[in-house]
Amino acid sequence: MNHAFVEVQQAAKRFPGAKGEPDLTVFENVSFQLKKGEFVCIIGHSGCGKSTIMNSLAGLDRFSDGAMVMEGKEIDGPGLERGVVFQNYSLLPWLSALENVRFGVRARWKDWDQARVTEHSLEYLEMVGLKDVVDRKPAQLSGGMRQRVSIARAFATKPKLLLLDEPFGALDALTRGVIQDELIKIWTRDRQTVFMITHDVDEAILLADRIFLMTNGPEARVAEAVEIDLPRPRHRAEIVKHPHFYKIRNYLVDFLVTRSAEMDPADLDRKGLHYPRAVNPASEDATAPATASTKDATDDKLVSFTPKETRHG
Ligand SMILES: Nc1ncnc2c1ncn2[C@@H]1O[C@H](COP(=O)(O)OP(=O)(O)OP(=O)(O)O)[C@@H](O)[C@H]1O
């Protein structure tokens, strides 16, 4: 019996090739589960299919093969139980910050009166530090402020699953840090299930319970699920002092720099439903970088991943 909150089963995305060219398989045999209330980040090189997976979970795209199930029901199109935050804010430009949030809240709770919708919307805008600018339109806000409105709107509607596609990608490091803290604050309070794309290893370690690692495309796979066992609440300045921090960080960087390009999909598929392999880099076995071989957590013997010369990084 399946107790996963969200389950993606054997997903693939293919595009027909141009005249005479073979079809493009962006990713294949992608399977994973999300537990209720967990924060999962997904990392992988550009083009491996992260946004396609996220957009499919949002109901805005479709896999070529495979299935997605949330609380036992197949995901088939967009729904209010899933909220999305994109990198480019996607606010309605003719509405103020408050009206943008109210718009989402009103759609979610149609029986609420105006005062309740406003009060609830203001509560979330305050949590992201925008109390004093709620009447400004998006054009009158900085990029960081706009992204805060998007985050307030997404969390205020309390979707069961929040999908964040590189929400801080366009922000400077300082603003990014501040909004990460706000995101942690809201998530700690509401404990919604979050699935987030990021290219930033430190951001993923700060936020996630688990980090999914994708191999390079084409024919990418979600190869590993790395457990982040740093205690919460986490603070940027503090977690770097934790003895596990650099073990985790080095493991992730080694994957992205070396192993993501070397893993052979055929090898991963041989192990079928065991993937993504659960890894805890803080444990002894995982700390040694596994460049040409890695340890199979399922049967306790070494399995080598043959470098594939044709794969690009
Ligand atoms: N219509 C299409 N025809 C052919 N290939 C496509 C089409 N749409 C998308 N792709 C390819 O699908 C792949 C996956 O794209 P996707 O945006 O999901 O990757 P990503 O991992 O999110 O990348 P990034 O990190 O750069 O955002 C890319 O290589 C892209 O070129």
Automatic annotation (TrEMBL):
Residue ranges annotated for the ABC transporter domain, each copy included = 6-241
Q: Which Pfam families match?
A: ABC_tran
| Keyword annotations from UniProtKB, A to Z | ATP-binding, Cell membrane, Membrane, Nucleotide-binding, Transport
Q: Which CDD domains match?
A: ABC_NrtD_SsuB_transporters
Instruction: Identify the species of origin.
Output: Halomonas gemina
In its UniProt record, a GO molecular function of this protein is: ATP binding
Composition bias, kind Basic and acidic residues: at what positions? 296-313
Q: What is its main location?
A: membrane
Task: State the source organism's domain of life.
Answer: Bacteria
Organism lineage: Bacteria, Pseudomonadati, Pseudomonadota, Gammaproteobacteria, Oceanospirillales
- Read off the InterPro entries from this record: AAA+_ATPase, ABC_transporter-like_ATP-bd, ABC_transporter-like_CS, ABC_transporter_ATP-bind, NO3_transporter_ATP-bd-like, P-loop_NTPase
Give the residues annotated as coiled coil. Answer: none
Q: How does it sit in the membrane?
A: Peripheral membrane protein
What family does this belong to? Belongs to the ABC transporter superfamily.
What's the protein name? ABC transporter ATP-binding protein
- Ranges for the region named Disordered are 274-313
Q: Where in the cell is it found?
A: Cell membrane
